[in-house]
Design a protein that fits this description.
By secondary structure, the chain is of the alpha/beta class. The chain is 33% helix and 10% strand. The protein starts with a helix and ends in a 52-residue tail after the last helix. Bound molecules: iron/sulfur cluster (SF4). Iron/sulfur cluster binds next to helix 4.
């Protein structure tokens, strides 16, 4: 059947924006959490930019299924996968009681394991491509498709105006692989200690469930205010 004309148009816009960055000699990298809603962006980028580095932030707390899916998708889409991790060893990520920080201070845990490892990349490249969508939460709703970073570069959000329905349309039409935990009721997957199955049917309900926290910092602290 193929993509609807509306979705095909959105795909063409992404190719065009990437080409514009390349015409301007911008260096690009992407980041991804390698879950279901990551797939269309990774598939489009894989077809649009040869050898684009795609970074995965290896927190050390992911579901094993995520790591296996990351490797499968990277191979199938012929991605240049790069893993980054915190330079702070887990032995130094413990509170006074000896428990890992995610048990008492998830913001600091996210800073050490997600935000801080990403910072050098923002100084190294001109454009950071990531797959946030406006329909995921209130913070993301306020983002623009291109934003500046505190390091003087740019963020490009090619999926910002895609709906969850369109994500699934693309996955279905392109016959993309399925993330194994989708079948178990998860809708958004992060680190295992901070991810539960959603209770209200909203995509990111299960992330940091029961806390006011909705973001890890990548899409709040690493956007120029
Ligand atoms: S999502 Fe949870 S485990 Fe992962 S870095 Fe943040 S606080 Fe730590």
């Amino acid at each position: 059947m193929g993509l609807s004309s509306n979705l095909d148009h959105k795909v063409q816009l992404i190719h065009r924006q990437i080409a514009d960055f390349q015409d301007d000699k911008k260096s690009l990298f992407a980041s991804s959490s390698f879950q279901t809603h990551s797939l269309p962006m990774l598939h489009i980028l894989g077809r649009s930019v040869a050898d684009l580095p795609v970074y995965f932030i290896q927190t050390g707390f992911h579901f094993p299924e995520t790591l296996a899916f990351r490797d499968k998708v990277a191979k199938e889409f012929d991605l240049t996968l790069k893993n980054i991790e915190s330079h702070v060893p887990k032995s130094q990520q413990r509170n006074a009681q000896g428990n890992l920080y995610f048990t008492s201070d998830p913001d600091y845990c996210c800073f050490l394991n997600k935000t801080q490892p990403m910072q050098p990349l923002l100084a190294q490249f001109d454009v950071w491509v990531n797959g946030v969508r406006a329909d995921q939460n209130a913070n993301r709703k306020n983002l623009n498709s291109i934003e500046n970073t505190p390091q003087g570069g740019m963020r490009y959000h090619p999926m910002l105006d895609w709906s969850r329905k369109e994500i699934w349309e693309y996955i279905t039409e392109m016959n993309l692989p399925r993330y194994p935990l989708d079948n178990q009721g998860y809708m958004s997957i992060g680190c295992e200690p901070c991810t539960l199955k959603p209770t209200l049917g909203e995509e990111r309900d299960g992330r940091w469930l029961g806390q006011s926290k909705t973001e890890c910092g990548l899409h709040t602290e690493l956007v120029s205010k």
